[in-house]
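input
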Amino acid sequence: MLDLSRHHSVQIPIPLWGNPLPDCDPFLAVDMHKNYPKDSSLQDLSSLKIRDFEELQREFTYGVLRAWVGPRDVHGSNSFIIKFAIAGSDKRHKALRREAAVYHEQLSSLQGKDIPKFFGYYEGSFLEDEDEDEDDSPVRVSCIFLEDCGDAVDCNFGDLPLADRAEIMKKVGRVHQCGLILDDFQEQNVVSKGSSYRLIDFQHVETGHKCPWKGGRVYEGQVIPTFDQIGCPALHNVGLELQLWRSRLSVVIFGKTRPKRDFPTQKAIDILCRGIGSFHFENEKRLHNWIRNYKEFEARMTPEEYMTKYPRPDFGLPPKQLGKDEYE
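output
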């Protein structure tokens, strides 16, 4: 875990404006000092210099870096996230300071479980051109240091496993229970490392929320629950965004919704699809037709009996190898 208690400051790389000049480093090292929360245990020993890093996001007045305490390829060198604001108006800096307060004061109980660990809010400055007049105002820099919990989800929520989507909703629910609502919940608000997910980006939140969600159940994979079942309309909207539930008018086959009137029950579909690890994309229509065909027999035979009488084709094979059949 990142430990900054032995350093009075941290020297971080800040990107310079415009296109870099030949043979010039496009980053400037800036000394940052901890501003919040105040830490009386800091030992004035040395400045920690960050030399190994990569850009994750870059805009004109703000950005995000992944940084390493030591060389990234050395065993034991921990990475962490630097979210910074540079120059511009005070709006960006104030937003970072508010986010720091959210992490430290309102979501401290969720750090390391549902959100990244927060290591502090830092401030610093630099002169834009040291050769200019000494009266030039320094350029302000502010940043927060966070645990590195991986990269943002790079697919639609609906493409994630159902169990993962349910866990993400529970994490959002626990944020709600801390009195906050995420103003704009999207895939970019979720990062993952392996099968572990964390929520990020708390600059834009509604405070003072009294969430009636009781915790626990989110009814994943079931028919869309009512507002009363979830308890919180805002959290109900998150469930819809996560595609956590199935419609009362449709069924779901490997993430694709189909009209309920044309297919057997969802329970039967789940049994018929059990054991299909994957299928050739050109066989999707065949798969759906084979499942649809069971609707004719649903009243007089179980899905298992149907699969015995009408064996399931190997939908993982290319169409040419599968040959022709009635399900084309």
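quick obs: The chain is about 25% helix and 25% strand.
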